[in-house]
Amino acid sequence: MKYKAIDQDDILVLQEIVGADFLIPKQELEEDYAHDELQTVHAWPDCLVQVKNKDQISQIMKYAYRMNIPVTVRGSGTGLVGGCVPIEGGILLDTSKMNRFVELDPINMTLRVEPGVLLMEIYEYVEKEGFFYAPDPGEKSATIGGNIATNAGGMRAMKYGVTRDWVRGLEVVLPNGELVSFGGKVVKNSSGYALKDLLIGSEGTLGIIVEATLKLIPLPKYSASMLIPFPNRIQAVSAVPKIITHHVLPTAVEFLEKESLRFSEEYLGKKIPHAQYDAYLLITYDGNTQSEIDYDIQRISELCVNTLGAIDVYLIDTDERKQSVWSARGAFLEAIKASTTQIDECDVVLPRSMISEYLDFTQQLSQSLQVRIPYFGHVGDGNLHIYFCKDDLEDQKWNELLTKGFEQMYQKAFELGGKVSGEHGIGYAKKSYLKEQVGPTQIQLMKGIKDTFDPTYILNPGKVIQ
Amino acid sequence: MKYKAIDQDDILVLQEIVGADFLIPKQELEEDYAHDELQTVHAWPDCLVQVKNKDQISQIMKYAYRMNIPVTVRGSGTGLVGGCVPIEGGILLDTSKMNRFVELDPINMTLRVEPGVLLMEIYEYVEKEGFFYAPDPGEKSATIGGNIATNAGGMRAMKYGVTRDWVRGLEVVLPNGELVSFGGKVVKNSSGYALKDLLIGSEGTLGIIVEATLKLIPLPKYSASMLIPFPNRIQAVSAVPKIITHHVLPTAVEFLEKESLRFSEEYLGKKIPHAQYDAYLLITYDGNTQSEIDYDIQRISELCVNTLGAIDVYLIDTDERKQSVWSARGAFLEAIKASTTQIDECDVVLPRSMISEYLDFTQQLSQSLQVRIPYFGHVGDGNLHIYFCKDDLEDQKWNELLTKGFEQMYQKAFELGGKVSGEHGIGYAKKSYLKEQVGPTQIQLMKGIKDTFDPTYILNPGKVIQ
Quick one: which of A357, B60, B259, B426 has the most CB atoms within 10 Å? Predict the structure, then answer.
């Protein structure tokens, strides 16, 4: 695609729309805006435009559409696949200042928000009113717009589903600047093709999310977590399906290993209780009576210790313990980053029955390539986060091993019925693996959809299927 | 669109694919195949083809694609908007003999089925293994293929979501005969555009579902229902949001009126207990401990009687009572049909806060038009089923009143934030209302999607957006 390069006339028009203070030209921009959290993809926009409302976005898109200027949307920039990196330059449209709570509707149990509201702000806002927004991606400073764009998953997906399941309606600005509304406050909808569901997970390539109507439920009144050490990874991972099908659905089942905990201890600079074992499951139950939770905890404790080979069961019941264990879990990505010079990530999702075999494969690959590959994961839902660490490898060697290693990782995942991405998306970094996974027919269907929504390819160019 | 009319050569080719016994030409076909359950749309296919596997479907589509012959898919024919009626003639592709259970995977908690498996067969199959498939559309003899094609909802949607939320993967034959696979056994997926979710609810216009991988969860061990009479409709309906937000999410909240119960009593030929009151809520809770359910029942009973004006609370606890009440609820549609000469249906879904206002409007409309308009509904999720009854009206008058009445019903629904269809789809009968609701831009986007999947418009022509 060939786009118009931004010149001074364009800058003046954009300044007119957003105000001079909210347009920052490339030469004055911080380097942060040229990459996302993982920093594997780098590119500078011609300018950053900080928008305050949907009307500004509509005006900008009308102009960009007419002038053929590429536009890439950015929220908090916490993505891991380069999805918000403006690889064709043009306008980087920053929605982080669109962070109003528009309406909490207690009767329809919906929350209307602008796209720049942060995930952690949503929890705080609704929980004090007795409501619950269940999706629980690890990065709480992500914007809800970014969560919707990637169909973010998180730790509670096995019980509560992913972001898509919690979005009832979307307002979207199309590439030509037109504002459209999909869905609404309704619980059911079978009125034509599922445009809302198609927009969710389309990573800013089909339209710009300018408002979302989220589903809420009454806040579960009680929850409890257990940290369960096992002698080794195989026993821990093999226990998961048995735990899940034995009784009721846990809220979350996370898998931790000694190595990840050690990174977290170093990174956080403090000890984590019971961190001496090789492998752990961290299991949470929630419910509306204490007796129900007690019953869940008791049944699963007995099962783990009596039948599944667990060493012990530690109840994470005091505030101090909760803080300690969950902050360790929350710090994994940062801790792994801090442990090395550079990382790249593989966010595969597999049928949960295949996790153990896949982690075996990963360990063998680590040995054969001589690359350190720590991982952690949502084993309950089959989604693993696996990190290749550069350590002291030279650039050329690192790139070679990374290419070779990733090809093998994804190939193995596809063989086992897995997908490229469970929750981080395709963005720029994983495009070739998506093509390999779904094949030319599905890529053609996706391109047809892109052509329909964005015929001149000005929205987030070069991403997902391009 | 101009299609090739089927001739004897085509018949021979199709017979070759499926066997002579499984092709029934128009002249030998029962009249049932010229309409669906509601019978508001009539059209004959040139032939009915009963397929037994995906390979036959692929061969048929390759031929139909080459020859430009329209193909309409039919399951049990229980639809209510003419979605499976072959309005351009051609091939009526009957998938009801593709009714194999392919695999129950207890570890990944998934069920793979062919599209012709009936909803009631799925419940029976999975519940005896301790699993639960939650979507609960009223028509249990519908096929799962039809449920997926319309994104069917049902009574448990407020707690468990709709069919889309329970489909992890789809195998689909595209109009050109190619077999593709979307999703799989994975719990999360953020790998390119959501083609699976787009296929769901596309009413057989984008591809033919040849296999589905459904999500299961452990079967809740206990459930209990209450029949709660109120002095009038307004009090009953107004109680719903308070019940829902007061405590935990009920599994289902159904609204019944004396009139519907009376139809059911007549239709079933037996008395329903406690049927003397004007308005009722039928509320269900489920869970995994008896104490939890007891607690739910007690809290909601107290709330209803002490605060919300309920007359009493009848626990539907014995098998006899369950059978009696649920068979009455299940018979509503049949009973309303039996009470008149002809009906047409409005399946609107509204924000649940708008139900009371909308039912007021419906009653006023019934009086002003002098048409009997009984209704019932899933008030918990805002989805109403409203029936215009012809009774002894003359055809011309009936058509006039129906057109006028439906226009007003949908117009009012849109004003209140409602949608054309909660769960029955658009099919042929509701196309004009969809256009009115979503406007030309969204219709154009949907047409672009149709062009991408089915460029020659041979699949279920004349439906949804055409």
Answer: B426
What pLDDT, on a 0 to 100 scale, did the predictor assign at position A331? 85
Which of B105, B178, B381 lies at the smallest CB-CB distance from A188? B381
Chain A, nearest residue to B200 by Cα: A194
Among B81, B190, B445, B465, the strongest candidate for a mutation testing the A interface, having the largest count of A CBs within 10 A, is B190
Mean pLDDT across the stretch B354-365? Answer: 94
Within 8 A of A382 by CB-CB distance, chain B residues are 108, 186-188
Q: What is the pLDDT of residue B329?
A: 83
pLDDT on residue B330: 82
**The dihedral sign for the CA sequence A83, A86, A91, A96:** positive
Closest in A108, A110, A195 to B445, CB measured: A195
For residue B150, the distance in angstroms to the closest alpha carbon of chain A comes to 6
Q: Convert the pLDDT of each residue in B280-305 to its tens digit.
A: 999 999 988 888 899 889 999 999 99
Q: What DSSP letter does each residue of B166-228 carry, written as one string?
A: GEEEEEEE-TTS-EEEEE-S-S---SSS-HHHHHTTSTTSS-EEEEEEEE-EEPPSEEEEEEE
Which residue of chain B comes nearest to A465, CA vs CA?
A: B192
DSSP assignments along A78-136, one per residue? --SSSTT--TT-SEEEE-TT---EEEEETTTTEEEE-TT-BHHHHHHHHHTTTEE---B
Residue of B nearest to A206 (CA): B193
- Identify the H or E element spanning A214: strand A208-215
What percentage of chain B exceeds 70 in pLDDT?
Answer: 100
Residue B161 and residue A162: Cβ atoms within 8 Å?
Answer: no
- Look over chain B and give the mean of its residue pLDDT values, rounded to a whole number: 95
The verdict on a CB contact (< 8 Å) between B247 and A288 is yes
Extract the tokens encoding A285.
């139950």
Q: Are strands B167-173 and B179-183 parallel, antiparallel or unpaired?
A: antiparallel
Residue matched to tokens 């001496």: A276
**Assigned token pair, A377:** 């994961």
Find how far residue B438's CA is from the centre of its chain. Answer: 21
The pLDDT value given to residue B246: 77
- Using left for φ > 0, alpha for ψ between -120 and 50, and beta otherwise, residue A68 falls in left
CB contact at 8 A, A210 and A116: no
Sort A90 into a burial class: Cβ within 10 Å, 0-12 / 13-18 / 19+.
buried
Helices (H) and strands (E) in chain B, counts: 14, 18
Question: Least CA distance to A198: which residue of chain B?
Answer: B194
Cα–Cα distance measured from residue B419 to residue B348, given in angstroms and rounded to the nearest whole number: 6
- In this complex, which of A106, A201, A287 lies closest to B245 when CB atoms are compared? A106
Are A192 and B295 within 8 A, CB to CB? no
CA distances from A354 to A381, A454, B198 (A): 11, 38, 27
Contacts of B351 in chain A (CB under 8 A): 105, 107-108, 110, 184-186
Interface contact B383-A188, CB threshold 8 A: yes
In 3D, which of A50, A44, A46 has the Cα closest to residue A21? Answer: A50
* Cα–Cα distance, B110 to B126 (Å, whole number): 10
B431 to chain A nearest CA, in Å? Answer: 9
**Quick one: which of A305, A466, B64 has its CA closest to B72?**
B64
Measure the CA–CA gap between B265 and B225, rounded to whole angstroms.
20
Under a CB-based contact definition with an 8 Å cutoff, are residues B80 and B430 in contact? no
* Integer Cα distance of B177 and B63 in angstroms: 8
Q: pLDDT under 50 in chain A at which residues?
A: none
Which domains are seen in chain B, by residue range?
A: 8-94 (3.30.43.10), 101-218 (3.30.465.10), 222-333 (3.30.70.2190), 340-415 (3.30.70.2740)
CB contact under 8 A, B465 and A186: no
**Inter-chain contact B187–A349, Cβ cutoff 8 Å?**
yes
Q: What is the mean pLDDT of residues B203-230?
A: 95
**Chain B contact set for A423 (CB, 8 A):** 188, 190
